[in-house]
Amino acid sequence: MSAKAALGAGASVLTIAAAVVVYRSLQAPERAVRQEVVASAAEPATARSEIELERMRAELGLVQGQLRALREQVTERKAPEAPAPVEAQEPPDEASIQEQREESARRWKEHMADVSAAFESEPLDRRFASAAQAALATAIEKNPVVQAAVGNVDCRSRTCRVEVSDDRSGKLDKQLPLFVQSVGGTLPYMQAERVGDRRGPSKMVLYLTNERQPVAANVK
Questions:
Q1: Domain with 170 in it: what CATH number?
Q2: pTM of the entire structure?
Q3: Average pLDDT over residues 180-184
């Protein structure tokens, strides 16, 4: 090989070596940039994972709190409060019962006094009085017990006053509801008052009317 050829070959080797150095110098920054990019991409992913984990922990705590509240409600329903003890009441004695009866009789007597006063002040309506007396006469005729006991009958403009003698045999008490029912189409409401001694024969005064008023439940 000549000197000129040797110089040319050396120059070529130097050129190749320089190219390798330049290539490596260019590759090193590129790898560094890639590592930085990978690292920067990994950092947000890790942060997101931590945020998601915290969110899941918070939701889990909320669910646990709701479960505790439900358990407390179920426990309260299963164990209701015990009812307050009811104090035992002594049955009323005979004296109290008698006093109540007397008070009830007194109030009814006062009420019937008002009914009697209202009847006395009631004007006469001949048309009503005629129709009511005819209905009473028919009902009395169909009931022998009432027919034997009935006395004076007086009708005004909406009310009729019927006097009935009671021998205390109990027959009149059984037939009186049937008698009142038989005139229900004309005089559907009745109030009654007993006059006289309770131990012997007495008189009953019936007020039958076409206006709604309290009815005597039991007349004794």
A1: 3.30.980
A2: 0.55
A3: 93
